[in-house]
Amino acid sequence: MSKSETDLYRKYEPGKGYTRIVESGERGITDLEFGIVNLDVGESFFEDTADNEVMLVLLGGRCELLVGHNGNKAHALIGERADVFGGEAYRASIPYRTTYEIFAHDEPVEVAVCKTPSFLETAAIILEPGDDFNRDEHVLIVNETPTHSISGEAICFYRFALPEEQASQRIYSEAGLFEQSVNVRHNSVLALPKGYHADLVKSQDRLYCLQVCCS
């Protein structure tokens, strides 16, 4: 399978509501979906997870999060960082066939939405910065720790403290049929298929990377 920079990267252009950036079944990605919710004051976003395990990552701002129905519920006012460089994130792990709603009451909010198919019976949980859970009970793995070497299948969302900065990244396949050096820019999203690797070569500024993969 031949790839190009256009195949592997997508530029996130912030918009109102939910922007689906990478969808399962495209760009060689089979088990992951990634998007971002942007809400202004007074707006809300509602979704049913359907047949997916979902991880919400609060990128910036504050919101009220209401998760679940019947006996599987979670509710909290979350968010304390202005942007991704302001400390660790609030996160929420939401199982399949569960509803959730995000309310922006007093300030705008930006939330990453990470998904993978899963029918694991887990509890809805809201995680404060620094909290973790039993990863053996979940399929989805999401972290904010930049790693210089990434193996597919994975989705990586990048931001720089100075938006004009960029980093160099080498992409190559296990089969040795593809190799390319590209520039990672502010709001770049890498959709890395199985059998591919990505190595960050050089970064001139503080770099944020939200990495999404499956166990």
Describe this protein's structure:
- β6 (about 65-70) and β7 (about 70-80) form a beta hairpin.
- The protein is mostly beta strands.
- It has one helix and 19 strands.
- The chain starts with a helix and ends with a strand.
- The longest helix is centred in the N-terminal third of the chain and has 4 residues, at about 5-10.
- The strands form four sheets. A six-stranded antiparallel beta sheet has the order 2-3-10-5-8-11, with no helix packed on it. The chain has a five-stranded antiparallel beta sheet with strand order 1-17-14-19-12.
- The radius of gyration is 17 Å and the shape is globular.
- The protein has a single domain, classed as Jelly Rolls (Sandwich).
- The model has no long low-confidence stretch (mean pLDDT about 90).
Main β-sheet, in a few words?
A: 6 strands, antiparallel
By CATH, the superfamily comes out as: Jelly Rolls
- Give the termini separation: 24 Å
Give the overall pLDDT as a whole number.
90
Radius of gyration: 17 Å
Please identify the top-level CATH class.
Mainly Beta
Q: Beta-strand level of the residues, as a percent range?
A: over 45%
Q: How many structural domains?
A: 1
Q: Output the number of helix runs.
A: 1
